[in-house]
Amino acid sequence: MAGSYVRKTIAFEGDKAAGTEGYLGGFATFYPPPFCAINDQGDVAYCNWLTTQGGASTGKTGIWVCDAGGVESSLIVLSGGDPMLSKSHLLGVMWPTYFPDGSVAFYARGDNCQEGVVTAKDGEFTVQVVTGTVPPGFPPVDGPVFARPIRPPQWGGFAFGYAFAFPVAAGNAVAFQSEMRALNIPDPSEIGMWAGTVDTLELIYQATKPSKHLPEDLAIHGFSNGLAGSLSGNVILSAAFSDEGYDSGILCGSPKQLALLARHGQPAPGTSDRFRWLGTQNAFIDDQGLSVFVGDTDAPKVGLWAGTPEALELVAYQGDQFPVGSTTYVFEYFNAPFILDDGRIVFHAIVSILGETGTLAGYWTYSGGRLELLVIGGQEAPGSGGQVFVEDLEAELTADPGGQMAFVAKLSSGCYGLYVKDCKRPASPPRLVVLTGRPVSVRGKDRTPLFIMMPNGFRQGITSQGELVFGLNFTDGTTGTFAAKWVE
User: Fold this and answer.
1) 274 backbone dihedrals φ, ψ, rounded to 5°
2) Is the separation of the CB atoms in 476 and 450 below 8 Å?
3) What are the boundaries of each domain within the chain?
4) 83 preceded by cis ω (within 30°)?
5) SS3 per residue for 277-294
6) Which of 11, 297, 416, 455 is deepest in the core (most CB within 10 A)?
7) How far is CA 111 from the centre of its chain?
8) What's the CA gap between 348 and 303, in Å, rounded?
9) 483 forms bridges with which residues in the sheet?
10) pLDDT in tens, 316-371
11) In what order do the strands lie in the sheet containing 4-12?
């Protein structure tokens, strides 16, 4: 049966800002842009600048929540208010996300060089972590304190590799790395890493001391960028096991007891080669403890592996061939893997065509030892009037454990389209949500989208029912936040 995405306007530049005397300005975000999030009930949290009626900036940012009907918004927090971070008034708030209990988490920055992450529910605020306070795992009086920077949240199953990040992974689980300093000493003294839930954070690593949470035969000398977690609190992270050479590995599991998943020099399952470089910028762990990661071998080649410390298997390896009809694709590189609720693995890959020059990109799924193609550059882009996806489909996406995946793709005419793909139905075509250059009606006026923005990550931009949230910049200079749902 035919259908289409029905779009509703959540917030538009110039709208009256609920709970204030001001009006909504543009998105309050930086790249990557988690300026909005949607929960499974269809409620949308969004972040905008606050302006006067004439559009002049007030210098304030706010976070609002719009109900599932897209009708009414309510103010959650506005910068410039009470000293929420204990020592400073709020200069800015941004990067909202949802926790499973319905609370909204966000990044807050104060006027006394304080940064932190706060959750809000039913009008009550809870500071989860903030600079200048004693971290979990240390004496409340004589312990060190968090030092800057606690970087903006990286919501979702993907961690994008900031040196000091606070990713809140898919909900109640948190995992982050921060500098610490001794009390009353301005310069940071060492690095610590914490993981767990917002209620029970565990200190899993302290640079100057051995950790009780690591395998006994491992001495950690530092952590690489890249850290991801799951709703149940499982984490996957990469670590250096010496000060020299390439001895690195990947640890995963519960913060209370991490296990070694892979290590430099060990045999790489499914190949005759050995692991060389291992990181977790492209890694994911699910609620059951199943992991997937991209790694290098001494071949040298790049591969994608999945499993547990006891049972690790090769998903795909550089040079592997994948025939589709008369075309044979050859895997060259892998990105952005994640795991669905049925254990199916979805990933982005760069490939070449056997016997031809150049590369293109697409999305694949893997389950039960079988690879299937989801979307590939060069195939027809549905709803676009006969255009095709360009060869270099990007790896940025948002996905839900139920299999719904949204991505922005460049098309052959140079415009961009926002599409949704059901990853559990590989043969089904992607569904078009919105296309740049094609006018849409907003607040009773036709406006032409110029640019599409989407919250990257897992469980943040799309629901299990396929409803998604996104932002549009228009050719007239205005911006808006929208939600869309497929209707047959």
Assistant:
1) -120, 150
2) no
3) 319-488
4) no
5) EEEEEEEEECCCCCEEEE
6) 455
7) 28
8) 12
9) 8, 469
10) 999 999 999 899 999 999 998 999 999 999 999 999 999 999 999 999 999 999 99
11) 4-12, 479-487, 468-474, 449-453
- Preceding omega of 455 cis (within 30 degrees of 0): no
CA distance 84 to 90: 7
Apex CA 455: angle with CA 413 and CA 156, to 5°? 135
With CA atoms as reference, report the closest residue to 91 among 58, 44, 132, 134: 58
| Number of neighbours of residue 161 by Cβ within 10 angstroms | 15
Q: Which two tokens stand for residue 403?
A: 């299999």
For the stretch 400-434, pLDDT in tens is 889 999 999 999 999 999 999 999 999 999 999 99
Q: List, for residues 357-390, the tens digit of each pLDDT value.
A: 999 999 999 999 999 999 999 999 999 999 999 9
Predicted confidence (pLDDT) at residue 13 exceeds the cutoff of 90:
yes
Tokens of 382: 């549905």
Structure token pair of residue 81: 């208010």
> What are 240's two structure tokens?
């250096």
Characterize 111-130 residue by residue with b for buried, 16 or more Cβ atoms within 10 angstroms of its Cβ, and e for exposed.
Answer: eeebbbbbbbeeeeeeebbb
- 3-state secondary structure string, the chain? CCCEEEEEEEEECCCECCCCCCEEEEECCCCCCCCEEECCCCCEEEEEEEECCCCCEEEEEEEEEECCCCCCEEEEEECCCCCCCCCCCEEEEEEEEECCCCCEEEEEEECCCCEEEEEEECCEEEEEEECCCCCCCCCCCCCCEECCCCCCECCCCCCCCCCCCECEECCCEEEEEEEEECCCCCCCCEEEEEEEECCCEEEEEECCECCCCCCCCCCCCEEEEEEEECCCCCEEEEEECCCCCCCEEEEEEECCEEEEEEECCCECCCCCCEEEEEEEEEEEECCCCCEEEEEEECCCCEEEEEEECCEEEEEEECCCEEEECCEEEEEEEEEEEEECCCCCEEEEEEEEECCCCCCEEEEEEEECCEEEEEEECCCECCCCCCCEECCCCCCCEEECCCCEEEEEEEECCCCEEEEEEECCCCCCCCEEEEECCCCEEECCEEECEEEEECCCEECCCECCCCCEEEEEEECCCCEEEEEEEEEC
Closest CA to 432 of 51, 44, 128, 2: 2
